[in-house]
């Protein structure tokens, strides 16, 4: 959800988390503008501040603090107070990553470490809120979104990516390829080595995307930037080779999940049909060898009547129009030719039915 997995441009859940964060920030503007405080919104982001940066960029907040950049509390408070004074509604809003820390401080951790050695993050927003009140005397509203960012149904982008990732993973299973990770690279679906996760770190490109001195997103130069404004560091040569191999293999195995098509279809696959050109050609060859029977009246298309005992035989009549009469060709399928001849000879006029 933090979009911090190395090896892919996008992680499932990031779009939904940012969308909900922006919605909550906009909803918070109403009570904040009414009570005229400074709102501090703490968002998820242990080591990557992309959720705070992108949410601030889309919601148009005054300041954004991310995990990659240490912040000066006094400088930050002074900027927020200036924004509040310059706002006709007398309020200001800022976002901050849960992993952010002051220049001379540490992350706000609590509780016991988990299996990976991580302690529970959270509380830096409350620290900043109290410092604002202490240094400026202005009231604050502290809102820690936490799990509200990830507690709703996924949006359209996350549904699209997650569904596509599922299909890609299924194809890997069918192809019996292990040790691969599905990914998005340069806006295209691909697979990379699973080891790519541990071969680097994915962080916000601070020099290109963050104004460190002003604590704001820097988006003056968007040309050439990735869609989600992530760090585009060069991947190891092994990852680049994996991408080339996956691209070459995808074209050759695009339909590998389907059984190979035989050169000639087995006879058991063929289905007889009156509308089939093959069936009509076969019937025409058979009818050319059968005796003819003249009908007293002209008809359009009919089945030659046969006794009950021979109705299982698919005896069809193909009629050729003339001015005086119609010539009916009897075409037997399974019964013997003699039996069919008897059925045709004993039948009445072809148009009687």
The largest sheet is: 4 strands, parallel
CATH architecture of the largest domain: 3-Layer(aba) Sandwich
Q: Could you state the order of secondary-structure elements as H and E? A: HEHEHEEEHEHEEHEEHHEEEH
Query: Approximately how much beta-strand content do the residues carry?
Result: 15-25%
Output mean pLDDT. Answer: 76
Give the overall shape: elongated
**How many distinct domains?**
2
Q: Might you state the CATH topology name of the largest domain?
A: Rossmann fold
What can be said about this structure in brief?
The chain is built from nine helices and 13 strands. It is an alpha/beta fold and 353 residues long.
Detailed description of the structure:
By secondary structure, this protein is α/β, with parallel strands linked by helices. It folds into two domains: 14-154 and 203-236, Rossmann fold (3-Layer(aba) Sandwich), CATH 3.40.50.460; 272-348, no CATH class. Helix content is 34%, strand content 15%. The protein has nine helices and 13 strands. The protein has helices at 14-35, 50-59, 73-86, 124-136, 156-174, 206-209, 237-252, 277-287, 337-346; strands at 38-43, 63-65, 92-97, 109-110, 120-121, 140-144, 180-185, 188-193, 210-211, 216-217, 292-294, 316-320, 327-331. The protein has a four-stranded parallel β-sheet, sandwiched between helices. Strand 12 (316-320) and strand 13 (327-331) form a beta hairpin. It is elongated, with a radius of gyration of 38 Å.
């Amino acid at each position: 959800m933090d979009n911090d997995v190395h090896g892919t441009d996008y992680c499932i859940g990031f779009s939904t988390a940012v969308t909900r964060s922006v919605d909550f920030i906009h909803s918070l503007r109403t009570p904040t503008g009414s009570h005229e405080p400074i709102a501090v919104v703490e968002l998820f982001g242990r080591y990557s501040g992309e959720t705070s940066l992108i949410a601030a960029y889309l919601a148009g907040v005054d300041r954004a603090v991310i995990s990659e950049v240490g912040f000066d509390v006094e400088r930050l408070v002074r900027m927020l107070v200036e924004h509040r004074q310059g706002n006709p509604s007398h309020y200001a809003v800022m976002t901050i990553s849960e992993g952010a820390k002051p220049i001379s401080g540490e992350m706000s951790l609590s509780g016991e470490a988990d299996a990976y050695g991580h302690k529970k993050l959270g509380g830096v927003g409350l620290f900043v809120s109290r410092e604002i009140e202490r240094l400026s005397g202005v009231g604050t509203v502290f809102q820690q979104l936490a799990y509200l960012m990830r507690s709703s149904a996924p949006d359209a982008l996350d549904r699209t990516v997650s569904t596509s990732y599922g299909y890609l993973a299924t194809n890997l299973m069918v192809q019996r390829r292990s040790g691969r990770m599905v990914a998005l690279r340069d806006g295209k679906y691909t697979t990379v080595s699973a080891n790519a996760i541990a071969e680097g770190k994915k962080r916000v490109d601070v020099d290109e995307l963050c104004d460190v001195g002003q604590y704001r997103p820097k988006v003056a130069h968007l040309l050439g930037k990735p869609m989600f404004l992530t760090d585009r560091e060069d991947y190891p040569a092994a990852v680049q080779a994996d991408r080339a191999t996956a691209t070459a293999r995808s074209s050759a195995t695009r339909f590998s999940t389907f059984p190979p098509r035989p050169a000639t279809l087995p006879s058991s696959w063929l289905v007889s049909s009156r509308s089939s050109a093959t069936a009509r050609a076969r019937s025409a060859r058979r009818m050319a060898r059968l005796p003819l029977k003249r009908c007293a009246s002209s008809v359009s298309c009919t089945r030659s009547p046969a006794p009950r005992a021979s109705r299982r035989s698919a005896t069809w009549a193909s009629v050729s129009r003339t001015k005086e009469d119609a010539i009916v060709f009897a075409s037997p399928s399974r019964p013997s030719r003699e039996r069919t001849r008897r059925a045709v000879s004993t039948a009445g006029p072809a148009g009687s039915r």
